């Protein structure tokens, strides 16, 4: 049985990626059985029965999903597979997700659903097949989560600098991951400035744009005496993307991966519920660097701006407050 966990925090944080509810089975919110037909049975069945090594598919059942992607569980004689599809989006979105999942999986540090296949649907659209993980009834162990996440950051390194081999999405917002050797430049240009431009284009918000750009151009003092190495980040680590398997071990899913400063992983901490045991365990593996507390809000700013662009003005004041505080601190 897939546990129905985390639903309250999912909706309170309002950070719904197209597939962010995909793992949660709820008796009060399930797609109609006919929806599963939209996953293009023929292509999925063909892969499962050939590459997936199954000899028969026992049952196909819908999984409570997000508002864009269809989701289904395929039970077979060799185990279960999880399948998502989207009739209007090409395979690039799922390819980005699969690459991130594969790289995290290969670190052998923290459990993630193993991706198996991304494909195009006839007539347009795409699908992804991955491991189906049965969730346990309890939430993750914070101490173990902190340690395993730090081990993933320590193991997942890049010699290309900061970025990722593909662009992906943060929520439904494009996330640009152009390789850059300087972290401050990468974060200023491809994270803060990108979101600020979206806010100006979408809302005509020249105030937050101009103030935010002043901040983006003056970040270096926040990184004095700090060594920043490119670490593999989940990129969207909030409560809805963290759970536990039936053995109680942490599971992270729905990534927006890239290689970045390890501290940027805590940018969604306002919506993740990380406690003291999480941070204590994390910093035992990845020691805290000078100025960590001063940079925490900087990394939250990216996600507040993204929420502003996705969900509207309710998030503007939080973003604006962070920008104003940093401008005052840095005296720029």
Automatic annotation (TrEMBL):
Enzyme category, top tier: transferase
What InterPro entries does this protein map onto?
Fructo-/Ketosamine-3-kinase, Kinase-like_dom_sf
- Reaction catalysed by this enzyme: N(6)-D-ribulosyl-L-lysyl-[protein] + ATP = N(6)-(3-O-phospho-D-ribulosyl)-L-lysyl-[protein] + ADP + H(+); N(6)-(D-erythrulosyl)-L-lysyl-[protein] + ATP = N(6)-(3-O-phospho-D-erythrulosyl)-L-lysyl-[protein] + ADP + H(+)
Predominant location category: plastid
Query: Which keywords accompany this UniProt record?
Result: ATP-binding, Chloroplast, Kinase, Nucleotide-binding, Plastid, Transferase
Under which EC number(s) is this enzyme classified? 2.7.1.172
Give a short account of what the protein does. Answer: Initiates a process leading to the deglycation of proteins. Phosphorylates low-molecular-mass and protein-bound erythrulosamines and ribulosamines, but not fructosamines or psicosamines, on the third carbon of the sugar moiety. Protein-bound erythrulosamine 3-phosphates and ribulosamine 3-phosphates are unstable and decompose under physiological conditions.
Q: What name is this protein filed under?
A: Protein-ribulosamine 3-kinase, chloroplastic
Lineage at the top is:
Eukaryota, Viridiplantae, Streptophyta, Embryophyta, Tracheophyta
């Amino acid at each position: 049985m897939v546990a129905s966990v985390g639903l309250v925090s999912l909706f309170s944080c309002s950070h719904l990626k197209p597939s962010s509810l995909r793992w949660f089975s709820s008796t009060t919110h399930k797609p109609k059985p006919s929806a599963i037909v939209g996953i293009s049975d023929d292509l999925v069945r063909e892969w499962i029965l050939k590459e997936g090594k199954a000899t028969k598919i026992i049952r196909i059942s819908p999984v409570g999903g997000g508002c864009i992607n269809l989701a289904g569980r395929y039970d077979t004689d060799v185990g279960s597979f999880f399948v998502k599809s989207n009739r209007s989006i090409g395979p690039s979105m799922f390819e980005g997700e699969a690459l991130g999942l594969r790289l995290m999986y290969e670190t052998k540090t923290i459990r993630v659903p193993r991706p198996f296949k991304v494909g195009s649907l006839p007539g347009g659209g795409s699908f992804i097949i991955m491991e189906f993980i049965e969730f346990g009834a309890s939430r993750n162990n914070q101490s173990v989560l902190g340690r395993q996440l730090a081990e993933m950051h320590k193991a997942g390194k890049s010699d290309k600098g900061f970025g990722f081999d593909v662009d992906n999405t943060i929520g439904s917002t494009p996330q640009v991951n152009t390789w850059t050797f300087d972290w401050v430049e990468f974060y200023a240009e491809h994270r803060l400035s990108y979101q600020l431009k979206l806010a100006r284009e979408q809302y005509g918000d020249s105030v937050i744009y101009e103030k935010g750009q002043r901040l983006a151009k003056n970040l270096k003092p926040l990184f004095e005496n700090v060594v920043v190495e490119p670490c593999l980040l989940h990129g969207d680590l909030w409560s809805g993307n963290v759970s536990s398997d039936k053995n109680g071990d942490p599971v992270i899913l729905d990534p927006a991966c890239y290689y970045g400063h390890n501290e940027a992983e805590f940018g969604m901490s306002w919506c993740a519920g990380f406690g003291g045991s999480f941070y204590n365990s994390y910093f035992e593996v990845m020691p805290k660097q000078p100025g960590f507390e001063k940079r925490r809000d900087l990394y939250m700013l990216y996600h507040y701006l993204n929420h502003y662009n996705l969900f509207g003005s309710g998030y503007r004041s939080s973003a604006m407050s962070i920008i104003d505080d940093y401008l005052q601190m840095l005296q720029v």
